[in-house]
Design brief:
16-stranded antiparallel barrel, mainly beta, elongated, about 50% strand, 3 helices, about 450 residues
Length: about 450
């Protein structure tokens, strides 16, 4: 039996709870993509192959807990998420969501490995940490806690139009994001075609430990250095995200979606915790010796442009077979004015067994480096650089995710689900020169993620 795919409900702001929880895998140290995530969620038109309509004047609650751990003692995360939706009727809904996550561990600071022990100033300037010879420099002082709240109202305007409005707040000890989002949907072709326009506006405030450093200046030894006294307390950035989507019912078992997204950000887009190594042109080793700082290694704070324009094209298709199994395939292409281009392919196949299902997943992501990405800077020309970052998230990157989800639906329509995902990341680039050629400049990363959830 093939279940009819309903598209008579307006797009609602918010993906499945587990999708929001998975976002932590893309949020390593000080990487904020909450605004983009919520925009995509607000404008997502495909929420799954429906097998019925939620009862009017009822509540749907989805609760989940995520555990995430990277290899080599790097970042670990724990994140509970709860989403509650009040169904006033088939098309009118009010959704509340709260998420809290705690991240601890060690995060790459951007410096290269060296043939000797390296000492780094902590972000606050009141302490230090070391990286042994031959080891990737990791900031083990990293610890963060985030609370995120969001709400959305979705309702029809008339037979052919629907809208959604919402807002969110995300707060950390050194970062705050506040935003509003909305969507407008138009139904055509007996509601087999849906056009949706979504808009997200957000304002973020960055107030890092020790203040906001000046880009491409020397990392000081301690908070007593003059550089720390010259820092600003905080900086702001603004984001505007727009998405235009088309959802089309192909037949009773197939639905397809196309999105075009435009995102612009302006203001402080630099990561205040990332640095770069300056390498001696002759020896190919950390630049020290004759440097004016008394022979210690030279590190600079990174600096990124103060604006960024991103565009993306997204396609997704879901098909339900006669045996009720479901194929879900998507592709996304993103490009921006920083020189980054990326491709994402995600495929899931759900096997149904009466009141249970098993869903394997395979995801591949690849990107090119930003124009100003440098694994290190040379001592002969570092002072002439306008922008530079050694953050691996802006370099040439390939990631692979292999996942398996299991779900069990009880007689009362409540559902238990769990997913285990294994993640592998590879970076690449030039191999350096001199002593740098003996160091691992692009170490890989493995991570595991476990999600356990219950819907009622």
């Amino acid at each position: 039996m093939i279940t009819f795919i309903s598209v008579k409900k307006p797009a609602v702001a918010g993906k499945d709870l587990e999708v929001v929880a998975v976002a932590v895998t893309k949020k390593t140290h000080k990487n904020r993509e909450l605004a983009q995530l919520l925009t995509a969620a607000s404008c997502a038109l495909i929420s799954g192959l429906s097998q019925g309509v939620n009862a009017a004047d009822s509540w749907d609650v989805d609760s989940a807990f995520l555990l995430y751990s990277e290899s080599d003692g790097r970042v670990s995360a724990a994140e509970p998420v709860i989403s509650a939706t009040k169904n006033f009727d088939e098309e009118t809904k009010l959704t509340f969501k709260i998420a809290a996550d705690t991240l601890t561990g060690a995060s790459p600071n951007g410096a290269t490995a060296s043939d000797h022990v390296q000492t780094f100033t902590s972000p606050s300037g009141k302490g230090s940490y070391n990286a042994a010879a031959g080891e990737q420099p990791l900031d083990d002082t990293f610890k963060d806690t985030r609370i995120a709240l969001s709400t959305n109202w979705a309702a029809p305007i008339n037979r052919d139009w629907a809208y959604g409005v919402g807002g969110y707040l995300s707060k950390e000890h050194d970062y705050q994001s506040l935003g509003l989002n909305g969507s407008l949907s138009r139904y055509l072709n007996q509601k087999n075609t849906t056009l949706t326009l979504g808009l997200n506006l957000s304002n973020d405030t960055v107030n890092p430990e020790g203040g906001v450093p000046t880009g491409l200046v020397q990392v000081p030894l301690s908070s007593s250095d003059s550089e720390f006294t010259q820092r600003s307390d905080s900086e702001n950035k603004n984001l505007v995200d727009a998405v235009f989507g088309v959802t089309q019912v192909i037949n009773r078992s197939t639905i397809m979606q196309f999105n075009y997204a435009l995102s612009t950000s302006s203001g402080y887009l630099t990561d205040p915790y990332k640095i770069l190594s300056v390498i001696d042109d002759n020896a190919g080793a950390n630049f020290g010796g004759n440097f004016q700082s008394g022979g210690r290694d030279l590190y600079l704070y990174e600096k990124r442009p103060d604006s960024r324009l991103k565009q993306s094209i997204y396609w997704q298709t879901k098909h339900q077979f006669e045996n009720d199994n479901i194929l879900d395939v998507s592709y996304r292409y993103m490009f921006d004015d920083w020189g980054v281009n990326s491709h994402t392919i995600d495929a899931k196949y759900r096997f149904r067994f009466d009141n249970q299902y098993l869903e394997p997943q395979l995801r591949w992501y690849t990107q090119s480096k930003a124009d100003f990405y440098h694994r290190y800077l040379n001592s002969s020309d570092y002072s002439s650089a306008d922008f530079a970052s050694a953050d691996y998230r802006l370099g040439d990157l390939d990631t692979y995710t292999l996942g398996l989800k299991y779900g069990y639906k009880f007689a009362d329509e409540t559902e238990f689900y769990t997913r285990l995902s294994l993640y592998h990341q590879e970076s690449s680039g030039d191999k350096g020169y001199g002593k740098l050629t003996t160091q691992e400049l692009y170490p890989g990363l493995d991570a595991a993620m476990l999600i356990v959830g219950y819907k009622f």
